[in-house]
Amino acid sequence: MKSIKYVLLAFVCLSSFALSAQENFVFGSETQVKTTPVKSQDKTGTCWAYSTISFIESEILRMGGPELDLSEMYIVKHVYESKAKQFVLLHGMANFSQGGQAHDVMNVIEEHGFVPESYFYGILDTALRHDHSEMETALKSLLAGYIAQKDASPSDLWFKNISSVLANYMGLVPSQVRFNNRTYSPAEYAQGLGIDKKNYIELTSYTHHPFYKTFDLEVPDNWSHDRYFNLPIDELIETMKHALQNGYSIVWDGDVSEDFFSHKQGVAFIPLDASQGFVPQQEKVVTQADRQKAFFSWQATDDHLMHIVGMAKDEYGTVFFKTKNSWGANNNPYGGYVYLSEHYVRMNTVAIMLNKQALDKGIAEKLF
Question: Which of 82, 105, 169, 261 could form a disulfide with 135 if both were Cys (CB 3.0 to 4.6 A apart)?
């Protein structure tokens, strides 16, 4: 049975948390990679797609490619189809929801490539905002009805019904893309821009599995059972810093349910004295044991993914990670970005994804 906290956070990607600011945070000089404009996932639980596509767009820029606006919903549509297949093949004993992980995007790209948003917006009326609640209900109803059959067996018909629902709400995905006066399949388009799944790695940090090995991270949205490399938290944080200092960005998967995470204020931290309120102050020291306790107690869950693009320090010298959120650009003081303190990241990071080339040589030798 899911905990009350998990149920409440099932669609945490849909909303922000805010406290009234009593004193402004001031950030100094920044280290930042090139990135594309902030977007909004609207009323969907697809932060995983928005954060990872933003990361891919930055990767293309890093490699000298053009600034692109890629379609998140092209990825989402393919993932819904894959989840539906797995749900039926596992007799309904699988997760079917709007959530996902960074590797879901890479898995789709490997098989289906990607397309610009102008080729697939993911909603028939582009004047409307994305909202998958009704579509998810329709899909779940179809799947539940199928699973309830005593003599059910996978056939083309049930999958065509799922695909029809997705097409009715999201439209038909394109089979070709025009780029530089040439025509490509979506897979050829992705390959031509240098995006290859094998160049990327996911990392986490928990003590219930051996360090420097891979394991199937036990979070509900890891429905595909992809594997993550396990690092001590000190090395994970240093890996993140090393990547950003060398021009690589990061997909961040973590918990944003804490009282001192505020998209409205654009800051997240772990105060030593919460009674002081939402002001710059000394923070709690977070240990590996603290992380483990939070993970096992479901205090720290993978309820949101964002794109870390840089670092900065506040007026007290505290390191913050500059993080591109997908809740719009006009509703916080930093144009849609949130500054996560190093202490917050130490406690609430569930996993990250980055380019393997961003790894420090010493870390890479421990992993491979």
Answer: 169
pLDDT digits (tens, 9 = 90+) for 40-76: 999 999 999 999 999 999 999 999 999 999 999 999 9
Provide the pairing of β-strand 200-204 with 227-230: parallel
Helix (H, G, I), strand (E, B) or coil at 268: strand
Which residue do the tokens 């789709």 mark? 108
| pTM over the 0.90 mark | yes
Provide Rg for the chain, Cα atoms: 20
Residue 100: enclosing H or E segment and its boundaries?
none
Structure tokens at 72: 């998140």
CA dist 111 and 36 (Å) reads 24
CATH number at residue 143: 3.90.70.10
Task: Show the domain range for 258.
Answer: 4-367
Cα(72)–Cα(53) distance, rounded to whole angstroms?
A: 6
Q: Name the domain count of the chain.
A: 1
Q: Give the CA dihedral 60, 29, 38, 182, nearest 10 degrees.
A: -20
